[in-house]
Write a structure and sequence with these properties.
Layout: H1 2-16, E1 21-30, E2 35-36, E3 40-46, E4 52-62, E5 68-75, H2 92-100
Antiparallel strand pairs: 1-2, 1-3, 1-5, 4-5
């Protein structure tokens, strides 16, 4: 009898818990190189994955020392808890511009579409 009660309690508990999770992803922005790094996972969110394709967002978080970390994404859904998505950080326009032109950092230096690519000297 105790086994049945425990099984019932476990089943009820499982029914109250969300079962869908998704990763909130974004590209880290490298201000020194003015380009974006490969996609990273910022947080695990609860619910069905809303996907990508929403308006670009600049996500600002903090590292362990309190320094700002900038990310750019088109992830739909709510931003990770504690992240600043107000675009008030001075680096946000550059991060969003890099996302807009699909400028990704290359291993060994350079990027796929630097701002000065069309400028001749």
């Amino acid at each position: 009898m105790i086994t049945r009660v425990l099984a019932f309690v476990a089943l009820c508990f499982a029914c109250d818990q969300p079962t869908d999770y998704y990763l909130y992803t974004a590209h880290p922005y490298e201000p020194q190189r003015d380009c974006l790094d490969s996609l990273v996972e910022l947080d695990v969110e609860v619910g069905k994955d809303p996907g990508n394709g929403c308006a670009p967002v600049c996500v600002v978080g903090k590292d362990y020392d309190g320094a700002a970390l900038l990310f750019a994404t088109t992830e739909c859904g709510p931003a990770p808890h504690g992240a600043d998505v107000s675009a008030s950080n001075a680096g946000c326009p550059a991060a969003l511009a890099a996302l807009s032109r699909a400028d990704f950092c290359l291993d060994g230096g350079g990027s796929t579409d630097p701002l000065d690519a069309g400028v001749s000297e």
